[in-house]
Amino acid sequence: MHKKEILLWLAAALILAFFVSPFAASSPDGLEKVADDKGFLEKGETEPVVSSPVPDYAWPGIKNEGMATGLAGIFGTLVVFGLAYGIGAMTKR
Amino acid sequence: MHIPDGFLAANTWVPAWVISVGGLGYCIKRASEALKDKMVPLMGVMAAFIFAAQMLNFPVAAGTSGHLLGGVLAAVLLGPYAGAVVIAVVLAVQCLVFQDGGLTALGANILNMSFIGTMGGYIIYSLIRKAIGDNKGILMGAAIAAWVSVVLASSACAIELAVSGTSPLKIALPAMVLVHMLIGIGEAIISVLILSFVLKTRPDLIYNKEV
């Protein structure tokens, strides 16, 4: 892949993460829904084992929900890009 | 279907962690044999794309949403091993940075989505691709495998819930499979749309085992 192409794909992912994610459906996902219907949802509502820096895809301290989600999306997209690229580069000998 | 902390008992999440650590080591070893130069940036791009797409929940049945898993999509472009590694990276970041999926359950989430979803999905994809051939085989294989991968991963999740004593299998399994049969349709549609675009613009990015 050319540099330009990588940047284009990355830009597309960033646009999805920033501009589209605030509009994503907020209803529970399949597992949450089943947990709720079948009465074991509260088992998962204990304190998490580690506390995350950006819980629930909302950048802390930002009042505007869409902006908080969008920024979390940009941050996460860049982190996984860097990590997966790095692991790929180390893996390839 | 990112399992949070609390759903799984230690009798389930500990072995799942052991399997996922060992499995990832194996995947990295196998990926290093098959990885070509052009695939390294593609690993980064796929991780970025799948992470972003996983934020985009689409509504399915009443009061339920689903999002792309991306395992089959990753494996069609990167092969099963690098594809599984990419999904595991996404799951680990979602867990550690965004509290999406618990740390104790991360092993099970990797087992369900990276191994069963991605590598299992790839096996189904390659069988169908071989049987049909050409681009049609790639798209048909990806569509069916994408759907099956979501249903299989959700079944594995239900089995883990049952082994943990969280919900009996006869309740958890049909409920999980039913809702993920719907979510899997979204998985198939999104995977096919993206792969059609790749086939039109960069068909050389499709992973070929033989080459």
Write the layout of secondary structure elements.
The complex is a heterodimer of chains A (93) and B (211).
Chain A: H1 3-20, H2 30-37, H3 65-91
Helix pairs in contact in A: 1-3
Chain B: H1 10-34, H2 39-54, E1 58-59, E2 65-66, H3 71-98, H4 106-132, H5 134-163, H6 169-201
Antiparallel strand pairs in B: 1-2
What kind of assembly state do the chains in view correspond to? heterodimer
- Strand order, largest beta sheet of chain B: 1-2
Q: How many β-strand runs of chain A? A: 0
**Amount of beta strand of chain B:** under 5%
List keywords for this structure.
heterodimer; A: about 90 residues; mainly alpha; 3 helices; about 0% strand; extended; B: about 210 residues; Arp2/3 complex 21 kDa subunit ARPC3; two-stranded antiparallel sheet; 2 strands
Structure, described:
The complex is a heterodimer of chains A (93) and B (211). Chain A is mainly alpha-helical. Chain A has a domain at 1-25 and 56-93. Chain A contains 3 helices and no strands. In chain A, helix 1 packs antiparallel against helix 3. The mean pLDDT of chain A is 92. By secondary structure, chain B is mainly α. Chain B has one domain: Arp2/3 complex 21 kDa subunit ARPC3. Chain B has 6 helices and 2 strands; from the N terminus they run ααββαααα. In chain B, strands 1-2 form a two-stranded antiparallel sheet. In chain B, a hairpin with a 5-residue loop joins strand 1 and strand 2. The radius of gyration of chain B is 16 Å and the shape is globular. The model of chain B has no long low-confidence stretch (mean pLDDT 95). Chains A and B meet through helix 1, helix 2 and helix 3 of A and helix 1, helix 2, strand 1, strand 2 and helix 3 of B.
